[in-house]
Amino acid sequence: MKVLIIGSGGREHTLAWKIFQSERVEKIYVAPGNDGMSDLAERVPIQIDQIEELANWALANKIDLTVVGPEDPLVNGIVDHFEAKGLRIFGPNKEAALLEGSKVFAKSILKKYDIPTAEFEVFTDPDAALNYLEEANYPLVIKAEGLAGGKGVVIASKKEEANAAVERIMEDKVFGDAGDRIVIEDFLEGQEISVLALTDGEHILPLAPAQDHKAIFDGDEGPNTGGMGAYSPTSFMTDDLWDEVCEDILEPTVKALKEEGVSYKGVLYAGLILTDTGMEVLEFNARFGDPETQVILPRLEDDLVELMELVIDGRLSEKKSLSWDERAAVCVVLASGGYPLTYETGFEIKGLDDLKQHDNLLIFHSGTKLVGDKWFTDGGRVLGITVLGDGILDAINQVYDFLEEIEFEDIHYRTDIGFKIIED
Asked: Any idea which fold 191-318 has?
């Protein structure tokens, strides 16, 4: 079969790497992709927002399966568009993708169906929000309603920080229309965890848990990014907690959506936090996480294409369990200095070729460009370096040893990815 992957980052490179392993697949295309994927897939020069062009190309080239990586095309209805043309595509439709596209919609579902989450208020007027902040208890969390590339969440420890966040989001429009409405919610304290589950709208099949590191600097300091690293599995996810996640969060969410007339097919990504009173939902995403995908899929031993087809056909119940590599995976993201704000690109990347000899090392390209035989930086998040090791500590030690071999000007990465699990 021929597969088309939509997207261009490290998540899409990981999807291409995993899909390439399927015996069902004879050819992979990626639109628009990046140069780092060229040994796995043929690049198609169509952008992710050109939904009509993508659908027409898929029809003309007899694509058997399309896999959507980023959230934007999902929220903009790419699945509905493809399905209307008789094309098979993996991902939730536009109505279901609102679970990520609208934090107000997501929080409303959680509240209506008593799925555990923080108390919250919704504001459409900045003055009303600022008035609310005068009497609020801190810390609290301020979220732009719509898509903001993982950067639309601010944790404010005092009123001045909260006021500044409201003004940036609602008045300065730093996230555009995504900031027309905001959610202000209670701050929850505890261990964060990412749980991704496949669902066909009726059944769920959870993937191995992971923990993401969103803040730009060590110690979870600085602004949020699209993700600076991740690891899997997480040692604090006991069997009892796993049952709680499935029975109190994932299954009720899929059922709640169905009650609302929404059939959710694809990946349901639950950003959770383990508080003193149990698991609660921080957010939902409607697609594979990045960089979580870069530690989850390398551990998955099942055929991903087979799983996606079961989801599309509503036959997920046929798959009772998944097989996992027992090794731990750690991914560290190498970014351009200044990311997630302003940064420069075009710097030569040295050392990549010398690392190809290591079997337990995977290099996923996110923002790179190949000129001749040399690699250059071409984005904020440049590379994801993933290592499979005999336990988290072994994987951490190895990945940071390998990072010493990679150089480019203004390189930035966190030096504490995975350390939380060791400290605890």
From this structure: D-amino Acid Aminotransferase; Chain A, domain 1 (3.30.470)
For every residue of 127-141, DSSP letters joined together read: HHHHHHHHH--SSEE
Q: How far is CA 74 from CA 117, 131, 383, 417, in A?
A: 24, 35, 24, 30
| 224 or 41, greater pLDDT | 41
Best CA proximity match to 363, nearest among 336, 388, 343: 388
DSSP 3-state assignment of 273?
strand
Buried b vs exposed e over 232-242: b needs ≥16 C-beta within 10 Å? Answer: bbbeebeeebe
Report yes or no on whether pTM surpasses 0.85: yes
Nearest to 142 by CA among 103, 195, 190: 103
CB atoms within 10 A of CB 394: 16
Query: Measured between alpha carbons, how far is residue 310 from residues 205, 319, 339 in Å?
Result: 11, 8, 38
Question: In the structure, what pLDDT confidence band is assigned to residue 149 with cuts at 50, 70 and 90?
Answer: confident
CATH topology for the 119-186 domain: Dna Ligase; domain 1 (3.30.1490)
Q: Which CATH architecture has domain 2-93?
A: 3-Layer(aba) Sandwich (3.40)
Q: Say what percent of the chain tops pLDDT 70.
A: 99
Q: Give Rg (Cα) of the chain.
A: 21
Q: Is the Cβ–Cβ distance between 396 and 402 less than 8 Å?
A: no
